[in-house]
């Protein structure tokens, strides 16, 4: 079985030591990955804590991994589109939007009223002009 496993892992450049284990790098492999650093010679299955295996997995987890091809775009999208707010923060944000829209509506209403008054005055002035002419 060990030969079959090592033959299958040949593409990754790693081998499982007899009676041991290896942490596979995944694709693409981190730059700092060296197969020897993540191979464990002995893994006891007698109930004792496999400290060497835990250390190998922990050190592998600490390696920086390259982003996949579309990772930069996905990360940018997350940063731009996601808002991670609490309910209270979201409510405050929505209240600010409502206040902003209310101010804009009030400004448009005042503008409409001023325009209407100006149009009425212009109509009155035109009527006075026609009567005097």
Can you put this structure into words, describing what you see?
- With 133 residues, this protein is mostly helical.
- The chain has two domains: 2-61, no CATH class; 79-132.
- The protein is built from four helices and two strands.
- The protein has helices at 2-8, 51-61, 71-81, 87-132; strands spanning 21-22, 39-40.
- The protein has a two-stranded antiparallel ribbon.
- The chain is rod-shaped, with a radius of gyration of 36 Å.
In short:
This protein has helices at 2-8, 51-61, 71-81, 87-132, and strands at 21-22, 39-40.
Topology:
Layout: H1 2-8, E1 21-22, E2 39-40, H2 51-61, H3 71-81, H4 87-132
Antiparallel strand pairs: 1-2
Task: Note the gap between the termini.
Answer: 113 Å
The structural class is: mainly alpha
Number of strands: 2
Rg computed from alpha carbons, rounded to a whole number of angstroms: 36 Å
* Tally of helical segments: 4
Summarize model confidence as the mean pLDDT. 86
Low-confidence regions: none
Strand arrangement across the biggest beta sheet? 1-2
Largest beta-sheet characterization: 2 strands, antiparallel
State which percent range the strand residues make up: under 5%
State the share of residues found in helices, binned by percent: 55-70%
Looking at this protein, list some descriptive labels.
133 residues, mainly alpha, 2 domains, two-stranded antiparallel ribbon, 4 helices, 2 strands, rod-shaped
């Amino acid at each position: 079985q060990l030969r079959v496993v090592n033959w299958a892992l040949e593409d990754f450049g790693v081998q499982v030591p007899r009676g041991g284990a290896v942490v596979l790098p995944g694709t693409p492999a981190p730059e700092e990955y060296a197969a020897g650093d993540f191979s464990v010679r002995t893994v006891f299955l007698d109930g004792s804590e496999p400290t060497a295996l835990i250390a190998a997995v922990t050190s592998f987890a600490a390696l920086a991994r390259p982003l996949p091809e579309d990772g930069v775009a996905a990360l940018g999208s997350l940063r731009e589109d996601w808002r991670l707010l609490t309910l209270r923060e979201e409510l405050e944000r929505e209240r600010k939007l409502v206040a902003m829209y209310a101010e804009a509506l009030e400004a448009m209403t005042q503008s409409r009223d001023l325009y209407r008054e100006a149009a009425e005055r212009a109509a009155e002035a035109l009527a006075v002009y026609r009567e005097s002419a």
